[in-house]
Automatic annotation (TrEMBL), chains A, B:
<dbReference type="InterPro" id="IPR035966">
    <property type="entry name" value="PKF_sf"/>
</dbReference>
<dbReference type="InterPro" id="IPR022953">
    <property type="entry name" value="ATP_PFK"/>
</dbReference>
<keyword id="KW-0324">Glycolysis</keyword>
<feature type="binding site">
    <location>
        <begin position="136"/>
        <end position="138"/>
    </location>
    <ligand>
        <name>substrate</name>
    </ligand>
</feature>
<feature type="binding site">
    <location>
        <position position="108"/>
    </location>
    <ligand>
        <name>Mg(2+)</name>
    </ligand>
</feature>
<keyword id="KW-0479">Metal-binding</keyword>
<feature type="binding site">
    <location>
        <begin position="181"/>
        <end position="183"/>
    </location>
    <ligand>
        <name>substrate</name>
    </ligand>
</feature>
<comment type="subunit">
    <text>Homodimer.</text>
</comment>
<dbReference type="GO" id="GO:0047334">
    <property type="term" value="F:diphosphate-fructose-6-phosphate 1-phosphotransferase activity"/>
</dbReference>
<keyword id="KW-0418">Kinase</keyword>
<feature type="binding site">
    <location>
        <position position="238"/>
    </location>
    <ligand>
        <name>substrate</name>
    </ligand>
</feature>
<feature type="domain" description="Phosphofructokinase">
    <location>
        <begin position="5"/>
        <end position="314"/>
    </location>
</feature>
<feature type="site" description="Important for catalytic activity; stabilizes the transition state when the phosphoryl donor is PPi">
    <location>
        <position position="135"/>
    </location>
</feature>
<dbReference type="InterPro" id="IPR011404">
    <property type="entry name" value="PPi-PFK"/>
</dbReference>
<comment type="pathway">
    <text>Carbohydrate degradation; glycolysis; D-glyceraldehyde 3-phosphate and glycerone phosphate from D-glucose: step 3/4.</text>
</comment>
<dbReference type="Pfam" id="PF00365">
    <property type="entry name" value="PFK"/>
</dbReference>
<protein>
    <recommendedName>
        <fullName>Pyrophosphate--fructose 6-phosphate 1-phosphotransferase</fullName>
        <ecNumber>2.7.1.90</ecNumber>
    </recommendedName>
</protein>
Length: 391, 391
């Protein structure tokens, strides 16, 4: 089967989604017998519906390689909700442009779209193979051990927590609350524990959405830490909830699937100020958490390239309605391998931190989590030096 | 004159204050005829008063070199307000520990302390030479062209604005407001303009504390940009004021010289949401702005080492009550040289952005600022790639 191959990006970008794009385009160009042109949909599924394409197979290798160090999505992405007729239209667009292979790069929502397009193509009698490339910073995609995007977001939080801790310990006059991305799953916030690997300095507490937030308990712990250490560093996920499941900060804006809340970190810092009278501040890097190339994990980037290439190979091999997943090869040194997962197994299932990765008091992670997470962030963090009084 | 040399850090840390420490220690060790031991005061001027010292001249070179990549202050720092008797005590402590040279590394407040210690030593009849090493992320120290710490903070903002812009343009569904450090002077926020140097993508507007904030005008501009581009990126300094000089956000906590305000970026994002009904979010990296080693500017680091070494040499040469400053050597390629400034010329004078560096509409910088700032951020920012619709 010969035809064009289309790559579509969905949802929020990551530091390595373009690396998967690089892997997919590079692989596709190796198969001129099956792939005519490689297209990118400009602006996600919306761009596909508007038939806005660019020809990636015509891009010089030198420029293509810049994808490995370009954050966000070089072909754009979207979060447009799709209707049943949109999928039928996509199937017809594939036919019109002789697109025989579609690679959907995205998270849970995009895998849902992937599955629906696959079914729409069958229903429309259009011969198209649809394969998913996993992408998430939140690490909330089911079945796969982890997915491209998470390792870099994890490295980002570990590195900045290490730096902010160094700052707070050198000028121990306040409580600093760092906000990590991840509204429903605490994987990124949890990765801040890796800040401790360098020189022992790291977060004093880690608040995860998998555990209910109890204000009195939080304030007691902060007070105790402040008395003991002066400067205190807390990392929190952006989506903490009360024991009844409601957000600890009220929503300020709602549009479709997106809900905007006030900042959890600012809320916690204000609690410390107002209820304990202790200086506190918040650091909310926000989008930097997913778009920083300086903190891109080398392991994450390599796996992203592999995921793109594997998805391309799978489609060319006749696979359909599957997503590329990663699993670990048992052994003392980290090694991963890919496998294919039927998209219906991942569609809209949200994966949270398992109990064995969360400490008994619910305010930290376990050594098992640290062991699991460490290889994903790539090279070791920079080593710092601190001097103590001697005389 | 032979004796010990003491280095004291004051105020908030930067990404290169430890580089100045490295420069000072390394230089001091070259003069065994004048310098016996090199001490670091652990915990700033408070640490000096508590006589908490560590012997930096005994630290192995390998460990000392880690200072060049260690953020914050490796010997701690403080913001304790000092009384007249504290300076007299410091003079006596110098005598007691045979300290003949004191290098104060800090900003405007520390240069004030530097001048007062110099006078107290004269009054107490203690033969001590006191020299200042400039340090600021805000670039608000008078007389010097710029000072160590600013170049790295500037590089940080330029790089993350470039990355966030890439993210927002690839998923143009909201207005993003990035908050830069710098409460009274807009130098850091202004440096975000350098994000445009890579591939044309950068901030759409830059809000500086040197210009009054007018809400209606802000909302009009955002609405117009949103209509035109979808995604909008705004960089703001953390200290915007109304035309009457009051902060646009109310203070939430005051202690001594420190006042804590709500976040300006969150306030602006909420204005966009509530008054325009447009999705908006804020990114406030906070302390990351001054503590990121990944975004350390190589030029800034080198100048920081030079500032430390020069301060040491000045003290050994008999200078007293002076601070090391930087000025540019005229010519087509950036080159700086140091000179000595009497501390009374810099003490507590706050330097703001001059009019010629601010655009006529007050919401951006001029090409003259970009030319002035560019060499200070070190190597060029990473180049990104973006594809547009072709078919």
């Amino acid at each position: 089967m010969k035809g064009n191959l289309l790559i579509v990006h969905g949802g929020a970008p990551t530091a390595v989604i373009n690396s998967s794009l690089y892997g997919a385009v590079t692989e596709a160009k190796k198969h001129p017998d099956q792939v005519d042109k490689v297209y990118g949909a400009i602006g996600g599924s919306g761009g596909m519906l508007r038939e806005q394409f660019c020809e990636l197979s015509a891009v010089p290798e030198e420029e293509l390689r810049l994808l490995l160090q370009t954050p966000a999505s070089a072909i754009g992405t979207s979060r447009d909700p799709l209707e049943a007729e949109d999928y039928a239209n996509m199937a017809r667009i594939c036919k019109k442009h002789d697109i025989k292979y579609v690679l959907f790069n995205g998270g849970n929502g995009s895998m849902d779209a992937c599955g629906k397009l696959y079914k729409a193509c069958v229903a429309e009698g259009v011969d198209v193979r649809v394969v998913g490339i996993p992408k998430t910073i939140d690490n909330d995609i089911a079945v796969t051990d982890h997915a491209p995007g998470f390792g870099s977001a994890a490295r980002y939080i570990a590195a900045i927590t290490s730096e902010v801790s160094q700052d707070v310990r050198s000028l121990p006059i306040h409580v600093s609350v760092i906000e990590a991305m991840g509204r429903n799953a605490g994987w990124i916030a949890a990765a801040s524990a890796l800040a401790r690997s360098g020189n022992g300095d790291g977060p004093d507490m880690i608040y995860l959405p998998e555990r209910p937030f109890i204000e009195e308990e939080f304030l007691e712990r902060v007070l105790e830490l402040h008395r003991k250490k002066g400067g205190v560093v807390i990392v929190t996920s952006e989506g903490l909830c009360n024991p009844d499941g409601s957000s600890i900060v009220p929503p300020i804006f709602k549009v479709g699937r997106s809900v905007y809340y006030g900042d959890v970190s600012a809320h916690l810092a204000n609690l410390v100020i107002q209820k304990l009278g202790i200086k506190a501040r918040s650091e909310k890097p926000g989008i930097c958490n997913r778009s920083s190339i300086a903190f891109q994990s080398s392991v994450d980037r390599e796996e992203a390239v592999i995921a793109g290439a594997e998805a391309c190979r799978a489609a060319l091999n006749g696979e359909n309605g599957v997503m590329v997943g990663f699993r670990r090869v048992p052994g003392p040194v980290y090694k991963s391998e890919t496998f294919l997962i039927p998209v219906e197994q991942v569609m809209l299932h949200e994966r949270k931190m398992p109990d064995e990765f969360i400490s008994a008091d619910g305010r930290d992670v376990t050594p098992a989590f640290v062991d699991w997470c460490r290889p994903l962030i790539g090279e070791e963090l920079r080593r710092f030096v601190t001097f103590k009084p001697q005389l």
